[in-house]
């Protein structure tokens, strides 16, 4: 007789129709958890304010998942009355450079960092605890997962752990106090201390910490003795027709292109290639998909590359996958700072299975540099390697001219969503890996 499925309650903010990278991790875990005899129960806001919406993702929600919804009060809804555009940009993580911020943007950032602690979803904590405490007791649930950011959701887990005694897994898709944008929030000393206090309490109360990178694990090991397990993001088997490669020599950046991710060495290298090689100028196209900050557009224009832009704006996830597979080269850019070495962009794994070469730029010793190198899916550069970057783009261009631009990946199966979910399931049921 088959054993009854183990029930787990997953508390997450980003869920279809939310778009962007934040939704993918638990959408895919929930898809595959029933294959490992685990019944996912997903708790989400009933009336969220999502900065990006992708209605097509609704079709990907597993029909075996139980979905719980509860109303949320969102300060961004109120902020939108005064400036919908600014509130939406800050909500999605697009923070203008300090010298270009308007008074209203500075005010919104100050409020975001000093009033909304740990983030703008803090008003959902107490109503959620009241709702879920009753549900947990009525349905005999003994295991919960909280996924952040927003890290307010970890405070829901903290209170449920204290009040009901459930087993609690705190999943950090990104770090908390060391995440790249944290310094831009204009934190007072009180607010900074409050963030760190809450972070420490979560890390030392949860039964197990889940993280997406080795660097985050190392960072958290200095703050807690609790078990920390690395489960990266990954790729899924997408039902996408075979794509015909772009006729142009397209370099495509897919996803939010934030102000701090401004790779001057890339723009300079491309400008030189355009000026030095006439045929390169004829073939080259810079394809941008997703939310692009104005600073990025201004920098591209400064290097006289604006005429080569094909700015497609935000596309659905499936359309983005199609462009990943038809573009000649894929760009992966991370902020050049110590704090971002731990960030492994979720799109990396979809990039890797697209069988298109990746040009990645980021800080020295980035976790994602190791993944790209070991899987043979592209080349990683620091922000000081302009000449090597230029030579690589030229080599890719010459291969493109010979209709021979391709990569030969190795070892990708370990990053499949189903294999990662099996690893997660083993951790949940007590088989430590």
Number of alpha- plus pi-helical segments: 15
Secondary-structure-derived class: alpha/beta
Largest sheet: number of strands, sense, barrel closure: 7 strands, parallel
Could you tell me how far the N terminus lies from the C terminus, measured between alpha carbons in angstroms? Answer: 27 Å
Global shape: globular
Mean pLDDT: 90
Order of helices and strands: EHEEHHHEHEHEHEEHHEHEHEHEHEHH
> Approximately how much helix is present in the residues?
25-40%
Residue windows where pLDDT falls under 50 for at least 5 positions:
79-84, 86-94
Task: Indicate the radius of gyration in whole angstroms.
Answer: 22 Å
Give the strand tally.
13
Attribute tags:
433 residues; 7-stranded parallel sheet; globular
Describe the structure in your own words.
β4 (143-148), α5 and β5 (167-172) form a beta-alpha-beta unit. Strands 3-2-1-4-5-6-7 form a 7-stranded parallel β-sheet. Strands 10-9-8-11-12-13 form a 6-stranded parallel β-sheet, with helices on both faces. It is of the alpha/beta class and 433 residues long. The protein is 39% helix and 16% strand. It is globular. The chain has 15 helices and 13 strands. Mean pLDDT is 90; it is low at 79-84 and 86-94.
Please specify the SSE layout and strand pairing.
Layout: E1 6-11, H1 24-32, E2 38-45, E3 66-70, H2 75-91, H3 103-114, H4 125-138, E4 143-148, H5 152-164, E5 167-172, H6 189-205, E6 208-211, H7 214-221, E7 228-230, E8 249-254, H8 264-276, H9 278-283, E9 284-289, H10 294-302, E10 309-313, H11 317-326, E11 329-333, H12 347-352, E12 358-361, H13 367-375, E13 378-381, H14 386-401, H15 417-428
Parallel strand pairs: 1-2, 1-4, 2-3, 4-5, 5-6, 6-7, 8-9, 8-11, 9-10, 11-12, 12-13
């Amino acid at each position: 007789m088959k054993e009854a499925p183990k029930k787990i309650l997953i508390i997450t903010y980003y869920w279809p129709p939310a778009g962007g990278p934040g939704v993918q991790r638990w959408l895919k875990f929930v898809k595959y958890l029933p294959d490992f005899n685990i019944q996912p129960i997903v708790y989400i806001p009933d009336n969220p304010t999502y900065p990006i919406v992708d209605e097509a993702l609704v079709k990907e929600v597993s029909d075996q998942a139980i979905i719980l919804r509860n109303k949320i009060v969102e300060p961004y809804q109120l902020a939108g009355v005064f400036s919908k555009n600014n509130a939406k940009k800050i909500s999605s993580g697009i923070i203008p450079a300090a010298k270009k911020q308007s008074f209203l943007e500075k005010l919104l950032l100050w409020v975001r960092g000093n009033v909304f602690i740990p983030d703008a979803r803090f008003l959902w904590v107490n109503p959620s605890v009241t709702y879920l405490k009753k549900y947990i007791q009525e349905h005999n649930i003994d295991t919960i997962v909280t996924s952040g950011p927003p890290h307010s959701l970890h405070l829901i887990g903290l209170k449920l752990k204290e009040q009901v005694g459930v087993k609690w897994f705190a999943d950090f898709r990104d770090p908390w106090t060391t995440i790249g944008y944290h310094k831009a929030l204009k934190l007072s000393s009180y607010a900074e201390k409050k963030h760190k206090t809450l972070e420490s309490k979560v890390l030392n109360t949860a039964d197990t910490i889940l993280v997406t990178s080795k660097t985050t694990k190392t960072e958290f090991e200095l703050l807690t003795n609790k078990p920390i397990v690395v489960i990266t993001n990954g790729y899924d088997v997408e039902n996408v027709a075979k794509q015909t490669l772009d006729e142009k020599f397209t370099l495509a950046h897919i996803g939010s292109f934030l102000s701090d991710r401004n790779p001057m060495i890339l723009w300079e290298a491309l400008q030189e290639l355009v000026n030095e090689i006439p045929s390169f100028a004829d073939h080259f196209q810079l394809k941008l998909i997703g939310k692009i900050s104005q600073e990025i557009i201004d920098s591209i224009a400064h290097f006289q590359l604006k005429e080569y832009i094909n700015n497609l704006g935000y596309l659905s996830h499936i359309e983005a996958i199609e462009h990943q597979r038809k573009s000649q080269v894929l760009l992966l850019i991370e902020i050049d700072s110590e704090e971002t070495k731990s960030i492994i962009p979720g799109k990396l794994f979809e990039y890797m299975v697209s069988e298109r070469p990746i040009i990645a730029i980021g800080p020295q010793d980035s976790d994602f540099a190791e993944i790209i190198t070991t899987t043979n899916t592209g080349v990683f550069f620091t922000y000081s390697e302009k000449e090597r970057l230029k030579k690589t783009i030229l080599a890719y261009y010459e291969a493109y001219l010979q209709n021979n631009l391709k990569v030969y990946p190795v070892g990708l199966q370990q990053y499949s969503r189903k294999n990662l979910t099996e690893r997660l399931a083993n951790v949940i049921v007590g088989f430590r890996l």
